[in-house]
Amino acid sequence: MVDKELLEKGTLRLRWAEAHMPVLAAVRERFKKEKPLKGLKVGMALHTEAKTGILAVTIAEAGAEVRLASCNPLSTDDSVALALRENYGLKVYAKKGETSEEYYQNLNSVLDMKPDYIIDDGADLITMVHTSRKDVLDNIKGANEETTTGVIRLRAMANDGVLKFPVMAVNDSKMKFLFDNRYGTGQSAFDGWMTATNLMVSGKNLVVAGYGWCGKGVAMRAKGLGANVTVTEVDPIRAIEAKMDGFQVKRMVDAVKTAEILITVTGCKDIVRKEHLEVMRDGCIMGNVGHFDNEISKPALNELSKGRTRVREFVDEYEMKDGRKLYLISDGRLMNLAAGQGHPAEIMDMSFAVQALGLEYMVKNHASMDAKVYTAPDSLDYEIARTKLAAMDVTIDDLTEEQRAYITGWQEGT
Ligand code: ADE
After folding, report:
1. CA–CA distance, 89 with 263 (Å, rounded to integer)
2. Which of 264, 321, 380, 390 satisfies CB 3.0 to 4.6 Å to 295 for a cystine?
3. pTM higher than 0.70, yes or no?
4. CA–centroid distance, residue 292 to ligand 1 (Å)
5. Which residues sit with their C-beta closer than 6 Å to ligand 1?
6. 144 membership: H or E segment, kind and range
7. Protein residue closest via CA to atom 3 of ligand 1
8. Which residue range forms the structural domain that includes residue 158?
9. pLDDT in tens, 284-325
10. Count: domains in the chain
11. Which residues of 141-153 are buried (b: 16+ CB within 10 A; e: fewer)?
12. Predicted confidence (pLDDT) per residue in 215-270, tens digit
């Protein structure tokens, strides 16, 4: 029996996302007519929520058979998963709160279709094809990767000479990282944080670990919300950027002593570990928006605490052996998707346009591509940017012929 209420909720969520994704809508209209993915099988592992749903429908309407699983056990919107199955007949293997075993079973179910192409977020699907599921490797012609963490893993595979097919680093397109990583993560981190805690950000000491594009976005929004922001970094250039953007820059061991809110966004592991937890300010609320749940050490939290209580739907209280209480949001997993609803639709509009057009490019060009990590051509970024500007009702200037000659020439100095 279909849960009608859940289905209605998912249907409306998809409709809302669709109405705010004009660039993807334009791609979808063209794909519907031209069917650039006709007869292909596309296996997807992405956060299964409304915006992703519109991408999956776009790929299916381009002629592909689609299977979708979640790339994180906590990021599925069950109402959307149901609506995709019921309204569009898509095969969706995802459930919010799935166990680790179910998570891998779902990824395996996607791979069982023997995909021609993969769309991944975090590179779990792609790495499985190189390890436990080599049986489907031969059929795969290429893949797209959505996120910084996934691209880092794939570059490491390419450097080790083990990557077996070309991969498009969607994350590295300007129309992805400049907006999704910065403004998307900046906003959705606090969507998750506020849903989880229902507390104030203003006036609090807030530590942002990592000052990449995502960290920049989180720090910028935290400042806008009135927090006293401190940044921690290991990269000296990024540390100077943070300093000159007006933030305090400290070592983690010093920053945690006064931190009331701490947000990790590095893509690396063990950012908050035993030595930091030992001196952390009583009451600090920790959350992560990096891809994996290993940025805040849960083993160290368990070791130093007497016990853990779920005090709100997405918040665990750790009672430390020395009497302090520390808090962790959504078990250290992406709080913007586990407790919040992910990046705004207007942002995913651009990221998923890169995904759709990147896949079309890969299908056309895979035969001449090597088993390397590629970035989509600039022309694709500009096409998306122009469509987005038009949808935002913004017009910009054009160069005059004289100006074009000036900036492309070398003879004129004045
Ligand atoms: N929604 C779908 N995919 C997402 C992602 N990678 N980050 C944030 N929100 C998303």
Report:
1. 38
2. 264
3. yes
4. 13
5. 46-47, 49, 51-52, 121, 146-147, 184, 188, 337, 342-343, 348
6. strand 142-145
7. 47
8. 4-176+343-391
9. 999 999 999 999 999 999 999 999 999 999 999 999 999 999
10. 2
11. bbbbbbbbbbbbb
12. 999 999 999 999 999 999 999 999 999 999 999 999 999 999 999 999 999 999 99
